[in-house]
Design brief:
Elements lengths: L5 H11 L8 H25 L1 H7 L12 H22 L3 H24 L5 H20 L9 H19 L4 H6 L5 H5 L1 H25 L3 H29 L3 H24 L3 H27 L2 H7 L1
Length: 316
């Protein structure tokens, strides 16, 4: 049931390197793995809570398609939670940092649960999801020892809320038809796909200002301004491409996923720009890995879910 969310993993370095002391490679890796598994846990919890609605909006998922039982999902969630606890212990420099990382991760989990209930209420759902997204860098920052590094963690929090809110608005566009049937009055349902696309892009553009803000605080104002401008132009170009595809491909969940993919991928430019303020080398590594992993993740998800690969494996 777990789907690896690389967008969550990418947020870890932005939080870790905002701490006063940079984490070691092993601690950073442990924090990334903890975040990936925590994201998987959030997906499992969300699938458990939304299993009835998913029978209409996403019947291909493991629970509504009955290839995974509710008991199996709950046991898997417990196992993931134990792994997350252990990995945060490896990622933390102090006992207090470990406790704080777990507390923040727990708050993020609660917000994920609240998001499942907030989805029918328009912009409330994406904002709750955006706040939940911001707990990722905060947990990584706490595990790394906290304090004030090149720029304060508050900048990363604002950035994460903006980029997370925009991402959720864009993600809901694919389910605009089915969400209306089950009472999920999402932004896409209320405004329509095209206006929702513009609103989500607006949040992305606001997040690029945080890159310039971080540059000023860290005494790299010129680099921050250049990165912010380049990222904003990338987001605008991606939005134009997504809008053109959306009006040309017609309707349907799969076609909307394809249409909005450019603007979704523009988030990567935002993340890389934020990390580059602290470490251009790390930003280049994160960008290179993401450009390889993201297409593989999309292809694997399509093969396992839309093409029935998961059902065939379990039946075998």
């Amino acid at each position: 049931m777990m789907r690896v969310n690389i967008w969550m993993a990418i947020m870890v370095p932005a939080g870790s390197f905002a701490a006063a002391d940079s984490p070691t490679p092993l601690e950073l890796l442990a924090a990334v793995l903890a975040t990936v598994l925590a994201g998987g846990l959030a997906v499992v919890i969300n699938d458990i809570l939304d299993r009835d609605k998913d029978e209409v909006t996403a019947p291909e998922l493991p629970l509504p398609s009955e290839v995974v039982t509710l008991l199996q999902a709950r046991v898997f969630a417990i196992a993931l939670a134990l792994c997350v606890i252990g990995l945060w212990a490896l990622a933390s420099t102090t006992f207090l940092g470990w406790v704080l990382a777990l507390v923040v991760s727990g708050v993020g989990g609660i917000l994920v649960v609240l998001y499942s209930f907030a989805k029918p209420y328009g912009l409330v759902g994406p904002v709750v999801g955006g706040v939940a997204y911001s707990t990722i860098p905060v947990a990584a920052w706490a595990a790394a020892g906290g304090g004030v590094g090149p720029y304060p963690i508050e900048i990363v929090i604002v950035y994460a809320v903006l980029i997370g809110t925009g991402g959720i608005i864009h993600a809901a566009i694919r389910d605009v038809d089915s969400d209306g049937k089950v009472g999920n009055r999402t932004v896409a349902v209320r405004l329509g796909p095209e206006r929702a696309l513009r609103l989500g892009t607006g949040f992305y553009l606001c997040s690029t200002a945080c890159v310039a803000w971080a540059g000023v605080i860290s005494s790299h104002a010129a680099a921050g301004a250049a990165l912010s401008l380049a990222t904003a132009l990338t987001v605008l170009y991606a939005h134009r491409t997504a809008h053109r595809r959306m009006t040309g491909l017609g309707v349907g969940r799969v076609t909307r996923v394809t249409a909005t993919r450019p603007v979704t991928l523009s988030r990567l430019a935002c993340h890389v720009a934020m990390i580059a303020i602290v470490s251009p080398l790390l930003a280049a590594v994160v960008g290179a890995i993401s450009l390889v992993v993201l297409p593989l993740q999309v292809a694997r998800y399509r093969a396992r879910i839309y093409c029935g690969g998961l059902r065939k494996e379990l039946e075998a």
